[in-house]
C-alpha cells in the first residue's frame, strides 16, 4: 500500500484518468474530490462485502461495520 501525505488543495493522480483532490481536512476526517471516467466504479470501502475486501487485499471488516465497532 502506498501511503501519501497531502494538504488541502493538493492532488494525487492515478494513471491518466483519475485525480483525487483533498477538498477539506479536519482533525478526524478528510473530504476528497474524485475525477474519473463515468465507466469507472468508485465505492467507499465500508460498502464492500467481505469477499470483495478479501479479493482486493483489504484486511478485516470495513470501517463502520458492526464487526469493526468495539462493544461498549
From TrEMBL:
The keyword Repressor applies. Keywords: Bacterial flagellum biogenesis, Cytoplasm, Repressor, RNA-binding, Translation regulation. It is found in: Cytoplasm. The keyword Thylakoid does not apply. Pfam families: CsrA. GO terms for biological process: bacterial-type flagellum organization; mRNA catabolic process; negative regulation of translational initiation; regulation of bacterial-type flagellum assembly; regulation of carbohydrate metabolic process. InterPro entries: CsrA, CsrA_sf. One of its GO terms (cellular component) is cytosol. It comes from the Bacteria. SUPFAM superfamilies: CsrA-like. Residues 43-72 are annotated as: Disordered. Residues 43-57 have a biased composition (Basic and acidic residues). GO terms for molecular function: mRNA 5'-UTR binding. Homodimer; the beta-strands of each monomer intercalate to form a hydrophobic core, while the alpha-helices form wings that extend away from the core. PANTHER family: CARBON STORAGE REGULATOR (PTHR34984). A translational regulator that binds mRNA to regulate translation initiation and/or mRNA stability. Usually binds in the 5'-UTR at or near the Shine-Dalgarno sequence preventing ribosome-binding, thus repressing translation. Its main target seems to be the major flagellin gene, while its function is anatagonized by FliW. Belongs to the CsrA/RsmA family. This is Translational regulator CsrA. It comes from Varibaculum cambriense.
